[in-house]
Design brief:
- By secondary structure, the protein is mainly α.
- The protein has helices spanning 8-20, 29-46, 84-99, 106-110, 126-138; strands at 61-66, 71-76.
- A two-stranded antiparallel sheet has the order 1-2.
- A hairpin with a 4-residue loop joins strand 1 and strand 2.
- The mean pLDDT is 83.
Length: 140
């Protein structure tokens, strides 16, 4: 088994998720689910992209210096990603809106929002909390 190949597809998918739902932003549960669905659609549509060819019909490559290998490596130039899934989503949404097919919008209502950890605990009194924190550090 090759250690350099095993996780490539998984890492690529995580990179797509980070593109559609950056970690530095906070999203509500349903928004995060929707962004994950879109990332999966984008990844599935573009996972097998062909390598780009130049005018002469030769495959295109570029040279990159790998800090891990400490040597130059050739990277394939792939054809541009497609976004046909977005057109399909819009067409289906318009069709469903015109047809009054509300029964297909069930997933957003069925999903149970797990809530936040802070929402499950009662909020303490601020003055009491700060005084207990300060008294704890004074005794040390």
């Amino acid at each position: 088994m090759s250690p350099t190949i095993q996780t490539y597809s998984n890492e690529s998918f995580h990179q797509i998720i980070n593109h559609f739902a950056p970690k530095m932003n906070h999203y509500r549960f349903k928004g995060m689910v929707a962004r994950t669905y879109i990332a999966a659609l984008h990844f599935n549509e573009n996972v097998g992209r062909a390598q780009q060819e130049n005018k002469e019909g030769d495959l295109e490559y570029s040279l990159w210096f790998s800090r891990a290998k400490k040597d130059w490596v050739a990277k394939k130039h792939l054809v541009e990603p497609t976004f046909e899934y977005a057109v399909n989503i819009i067409e289906m949404a318009l069709y469903m809106a015109k047809s009054n097919m509300k029964e297909f919008f069930y997933t957003a209502d069925i999903m149970c929002d797990p809530g936040t950890i802070a929402g499950k605990l009662p909020k303490p009194d601020k003055n009491q909390f700060v005084s207990s924190l300060l008294s704890r550090f004074r005794n040390q």
